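ARCHIVE CARD
Drawer: 12
Card no.: 0347
Subject: one protein chain, sequence and derived structure
Cross-reference: see card 0346
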Amino acid sequence: MIDLLASIPSPGQESIELGPLTLRAYGLMIALGVVAAVWLGQRRWRARGGDPDDVTTLAMWAVPAGLIGARLYHVITDWRSFEGRWEDAIKIWQGGLGIPGGMLAGVLMATWVIRRKGWSTPDMYDALVPSLPLAQAIGRWGNWFNQELYGKPTDLPWGLEIDPEIVNERTPQYVGETTFHPTFLYESLWNFALVGVLLLIDRRRVLKPGRLIAVYVLGYGIGRLWIELIRIDKASLVLGVRVNVWVSLVAILGGLVAILWGGLRADADADADAAAGRTDDGGEADDDREADDSAADGEAADGSAEGAST
């Protein structure tokens, strides 16, 4: 029992058998992530007075665009691994989706659809942004089934078991090691936490409409940065640093700038509140003057009545 609890086993197969059907676990987890994202997006859009079917329409365009963008990003940033086998570039079911590319393509397509439909872009953004890390958190479990994107060797209790033949194929420098950091799990948990942070920030309304996506970019960038630093799978390098590390740094910087440079609601609302306060004060002053005038008229009337009685 102790040995069983000393590590996380990897699945023995990449597919799930459902009677006569054979489902690729990688694709299934992505599909489940999309379903969960649409469900959450519909609930949040309905709460804002929108039609839940709008989210379904949006997903029909944004999801395929995101998948294409994610695959293109992976192929472009890891093109050396496809040399001599370019036909494998379309085999998305074998894994290999670059989330930064997928998010960029998906958001661009979503923005185009939102504007064509005449929906409120800031409101739709705020409604759907928490759905993005939710989809990622679920979809990342596809990497578990494929035994890919694991981190450095570790003897921690939650170390991930990787089959020796896979280690030899993907990270031969670590042949002989049996357990590795489960980076898929780290990223999944980080994204679930990010969903909660986004929902909390949105509920407190501390950002201007449409700026919640900047928090997502910042939060995902931070998480991806430290996770990327412990990954050992092959990756393209720029100045000796993994491409996704640079992308994460850009995301962090961009998110911070978007939030701090006029993104906080207080920046815009302070003047509005002050103006409202001045209006209220003026209104209260007018009411006081009217009350005083009425009292004076009443006293005058009483005096006249008393004189008449005398």
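Annotation on reverse: Residues 69 and 102 are 5 Å apart (CA to CA). The first helix runs from residue 2 to 5.
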